[in-house]
Amino acid sequence: MRYSILIDVKKCSGCYSCFLACRDEYCGNDYPGYSAAKPMQEQFWMQIEELERGEYPRPKVDYIPRPCQHCAEAPCITAALDGAVYRRDDGIVIIDPLKAKGQKDIVNSCPYRVIFWNATLD
Amino acid sequence: MSEKVFTNCTNAGPVSVYVKDGKITRIRPLVAEQGDFQPWTIKAGEKSYTPPKKFALAPYVHADRRRIHSEERIKYPMRRIDFDVNGERNPQNRGKSPYVRISWDEALDTVAGEIRRVKETYGGSAISGMTSSHHNWGIVGYKMGPFARFMNLLEFTPVLDNPDSWEGWHWGATHTYGFYWRLGMPEQYDLLEDALQNAEMIVLWSNDPDSTRGTYTGQESSLWRQWLKEKGVKMVFIDPFYNYTAAVMDGKWIAPRIGTDTALAMAIAHVWITEDIYDKEYVRDRTQGFDEFKSYVLGDKDGTPKTPEWAEAESGVKARVIRALAREWAAKRTILSGGARGGEGGACRQAYGTEWARMMVLLQGMQGLGKPGRSIWGTTMGAPSDVRYWFPAYADLQGRVSTANIARMVPTNPTKQRLWRLTLPEAILDPPVSWYGEGFCGQSLEQQFKHFTYPMAGHAEVRLFYRYGGSFMGTMSDTTKWVRMYQSPKLEFVVNQDVWFNSETRMADIILPACSNFEREDVGEWGACGGYTCHASSGCNYRIVVRQQKCIEPLWESKSDYEIFTLLAKRLGMEEKFTDGRSELDWVKAFFDSSDLPELISWEEFNQKGYHIINIGEEYQSTPSLRWFAEGRACDTPDPNNPKRKTEKAAELGTYSGKIEFVSESLKAHFPDDQERPVSPRYIPSWEGHRSEIFQRYPLQLLSPHPRFTFHCHYDKHTDWLDDIPGHRIKKDGYAWWPARIHPDDARLRGINDGDIVCLYNDRARVLCIAVVTERIRPGIIHSYASSAKYDPLIPGRADSPDKGGCVNMLTPSRMVSQNAPGMTPNSCLIEIEKWEG
What we know:
The complex is a heterodimer of chains A (122) and B (838). With 122 residues, chain A is of the alpha+beta class. Chain A has three helices and four strands. In chain A, strand 3 (85-87) and strand 4 (93-95) form a beta hairpin. Chain A is globular. Chain A starts with 16 loop residues before the first helix and ends in a 13-residue tail after the last helix. An eight-stranded mixed sheet of chain B has the order 7-6-20-19-18-8-9-15, with helices on one face. A six-stranded mixed sheet of chain B has the order 28-30-29-32-25-31. In chain B, strands 12-11-10-14 form a four-stranded parallel sheet, covered by helices on one side. The model of chain B has no long low-confidence stretch (mean pLDDT 97). With 838 residues, chain B is an alpha/beta fold. The interface between A and B is medium-sized, with 28 and 39 residues.
């Protein structure tokens, strides 16, 4: 089994509700075993890229929401020491906030740039 | 302390509020029991459409926690440092001088003392006050409740609101098809079903529903448009900006020059007339005055046939595009979507916006308005909705603590003097002022013809101004005049009562901190305006009434508005008169008891559970809007304020003739010689447009629509997370700038690059923004949303200072829609733009 969130980018209207709801869920809130509190500013675990192409009068606008991909072969798992990043049986990739302490390489390993370094908690 | 969960409601959806240690930790779309939802199903052809069991909030509500705990909150009562109530008042320093923290006692004593002094010296009419709309949600605490009740007790001079979002429909369309009881916007009952079953094309004319969201109903209708898109319904967008709905629907885009939409509409009528492709039977039976209109369109008198080629010269839209649109519109069952509520839209908020709104009605009248797939529908209301169960809404007289007859005593205000919001600064600075129209003219067409002059004989000029809940710097027109007004010594005393610091807060002498609706008791139905926008909750997939529970104690030293007015009333010896002997929770219970909700749920359960969903019953009967009119039947929609409904004239519209009027009988009766709002609509070039003299100096048109990521000025700067949404604000050098969108050709000509700080300017003001160079805007037009909450003048206290907060409304004109239609015209605005070098 492998859990995933499927996002139909054709339906995405760029409302940014996911972007804000993700911040509301995690900013300042600890979920022990899952995640340390996200800082109130400057961290975006759910990012949206707005792409504009084409020329007047026929422009096109697309959005690429970019959360953690829970990669099948996740580079962050390889980069982590002591099993600080692991895959659950259901496919979800978890970064253990305690074990990950001091391991900045985990951040740099992410090809999607969606892992953030919490400077306060190291 | 353990986590507690409360229910509450916002101006864009119901929420569950999670609280730990007196702080809100997160806010989610209201978590309702799945068994409480009984979703409706619309059958269309082979397919059935059913909404999911959830509530889709507007995006900014997801960040409400930041807004509630914001550093922009007014934390304590404050006094302007150089304001001495017994000595020098220094009104000239309003907007400039800093404030000192004072006690509640000092603040209340000062405000109550000034109220008493002004009232005794000049009379109640020397007191005026003004509110904004919907910084909070909930009927008990809403502005029309405690604020109005308190002010009525003072016998104040009310400020009449202009219908700011739908001017042309209010002052124009009402004279074409009635619906004055809806302020010019058409009924929307069951039009989602009609669209899914019948529509082949939708023309969204000056409408971006994905951004304006039916006003209060969040993202609920986004799904409906997805259904329509999947079904293959073609969507056409007429808008100088390739708006967000156009982007996600991937529709056909037609971008006219601002101010020429009426010309475009005339040309469409021209094609239909000359090619004989309109509903002649409908025009014969359901309309009047067509021949005179036809004669104008064909140019019989003025020698100018309103051909697509003629319209191309005006609008910049190719004649072949206009012709193709007209033919397709006639050939296909086409819905006209002239703004988020059917009516609205930037095209009606400009010079002669009445003419465009009237043309919207008339075009659809030529194609059988009300027939299947031939509605006027904003795409944001009209889901199946059981309206048999009444719950009071804020605009219902029975939904306000000021006017509801559940009160033992309803204070009436004997003062006849009125002010007009758009000319309030002129009224203070340079009286007299006069205008036609009694604000929201929802009682009769004749209200629009009522003439007012301020000051009114036997009344005093205003000396005390009580500002409450919001600011107009970023939402009204030519707004630097508000700064000049505040600095006038004629205003002897100014008090500002608000939850957050707004652009007018620091213009006051005394500032009073109110709390949000998360810090007090209230009740409210999602999306329900009531009154003139009755049954607006059909913009939601489910009707839900929320017991808005007090989630946390008022933050810092803030108090509920109700408590503040109670304390003031006590000092004025009228506490009992104000409260009617009730607490806020008593009012909540009294409104509940007065409603139909007790038939569905007990007070105890509602109060504890926090919400009730009103599902539609098995026996639900669809009554699509205006189908009755098209078919010549008595009105069968549940539109309670339609005065002809259930009378012998029930098959008629609300016009004098009861028909769609190509020649307006009401205008003919009252303003027969008005050349700016003639009895039959005409295209009149804008007084501030591409044919104006100042176009040479200011060759760019400013388009400032309602915003996508804030509600008026109520979220924006009070909600810091929004600063990270590039469509809302863009951070540069540590400052969150307001975007101004510019076409690459216009940018290149001026040496402007994407991300440059630019100055938008004309003779009225200078406003700094960040340039967004984009192919999504027609060349010659600058797009920058209205509603910046941040007025941030480089030189505080100077009305002529450039603003770096993005209040582009400072640039917009004071001039009204036309001589007898006193609406605002923000989209008739010429500017130039240059790179700002500081």
